Structures are given as C-alpha cells and as structure tokens.
Amino acid sequence: MSSAELAPSPAWHAKVDRFRRWTRPVLVANLVAQIGIIVTGGAVRLTGSGLGCSTWPLCEPGSFTPEFHSAMSIHPIIEFGNRTLTGILGIIAVALLVLVWTDSTRSAAYRRLAWAPIGGVALQAVIGGVTVLLHLHPAVVGVHFLVSAVLVWVSAYLLYRHGEGDGQPVTAVDAGARVAGRVLAALSVPVLVLGVLATGSGPHGGDDDVAYRFALDPALISKVHAVSVWLFLVVLVVLAVRVFRQSAPARARKAVVVLIAVTLAQGLIGYVQYFTGLPIVLVAMHLLGAGVLITSLTWTLLTFRVRD
Fold it and tell me: Which positions of the chain have pLDDT values less than 50?
C-alpha cells in the first residue's frame, strides 16, 4: 500500500477542521465561566449560604443533593447550585483540553497550558470542600478566590494565544512601556491580596451563625487596599503615556484605553460600596469587576508583542 493511500482523506481533514472550529468558542466559554464562578461563589457568601450544604463532597450526610422539606431555607439550593456550576466548568475544561491538547499544529508549550483549567477546577473543588469543613475560614476562602484569579489569567492567556502564531515573540513597544507593564502586573498581586483581606475582615462571613473574620480593622485595611489601587492607576497612566507617545500597534493602544476604563469603573464601585455599607449587589459587581480587570490586564500586556 502506497503512502498516498495511507494519508488521511480530504473528508477526514474536513471533519478535523469542523472539530477545530469549536476551539475558540470553548476558550471563550471557559473564560466567561471562570469569571462567572467567582461571582456565583461570592453570591453564596453574600447570601449567607456558605454552609447551606453542611458537608463535602456530599451536600448533607448520606445525600448528594439538598434534603427538601417544608422547613428548609434557600441556602442549600444556592450552595448546591454553585457546586453544580463547578461541574459545568469542569465539562468545559475537559472540552478545552481535548481541543487544544490534540492540535498538533500548535506548539507544545501552548498545548501544555490546556491542562491548567481542568487541574484548576479539580483543585478548586478540593479547596471548596476544605472551606466547608473548616466552617468558612476567611484564609481558605481567600485562597479560593486567588486560585480563581490565576485561572482567569490562564484562561485569558489561552484565548489570546489561540489567535496568534507560535513564532518567537517580537516586542512592539519600547523598553519603558515594557517596564511599566511588568510593574503593573506586579502591583496587581497586592491589589488582589489586599482586596481579599478587606473582604475577610468585613461583614459578609458567608453564614448567619458562623462568620469567622480576620482580626483586622476593616476600615484600615480597606484604605490600604485603596492606596494599592491608586498606585496601580498611577503606573497605568505612565504606561498609557508611553504607549501613546510611540508608534505602538492600534490594538495595544485600544487595550490600554479599555484597561483604564475597567480600572476606573472598578475603583468607583469600590468607593461606592464602601460608603454605602457594602450592599450585596455592589459587592457582587466588584467581584465581577475583579475578573474583568484581570482579563483586561492580561490582554493589554499580551498586545505589547507580536508572534508570526
């Protein structure tokens, strides 16, 4: 049998192409779901449903689902709903792994990243279980959020890289802009960590009876968090000036403008929620804004280079 006879047929290639067309939609769905799980996880805490399911991995002893009866509250349904969404996120992560990992036309380094979402979902399921077993300890809850933040970053990176080639990256901005970008990325870490500490010191403990909090002054830690955000914004302005003073790609300039808008909106929500007593709706919007900010920052920094 000749090599021509062994080669895949045009019909086979057409099937593979149709299969590959799902890659970008699945990558988008993964990013949206990773941000969404931050919001739904926050909703569990904000509604006092953190211990709606009293144990893990079951919801109640001997029952995978909530036990429905006339005296039950809405809390078990909210908590179990969030666990169900984690399962949906896991399905998306599996689809992403299959689509990206099996694409032999892409670099090995890019394809290896496809393992991160499914690994992160599994890790988050365990951390979520530990959170319940430790009765919503704020440190564990904080780790739960920070892992989600990393997964949002990885998901945004995967989506952006899908539209690029696999050649060596070539810088598209000057050294000053690159340095400002690195400083901005570094500052995002204390912004997120201080946000976690402020949340873990505030009133939303996740359960009406059990509400362990950090032994920190909520007003003071919120002000320190605000200072970190202002530093982030100052560096962002410096970055914008550097980008717009040179012939940076249009997509880089557009990304910087979007990042400034997202940062200002997130800061505004933060101040309003602080001065209005942390209403649930605004706190949920702030959580959503955190996911959008991470995505926008990742996207912006990736526009500073091009790949063939």
Answer: 1-7
Query: CA-CA distance, 190 to 232, in Å (whole number)?
Result: 10
pLDDT at 26: 97
Task: Supply the pTM of this predicted model.
Answer: 0.90
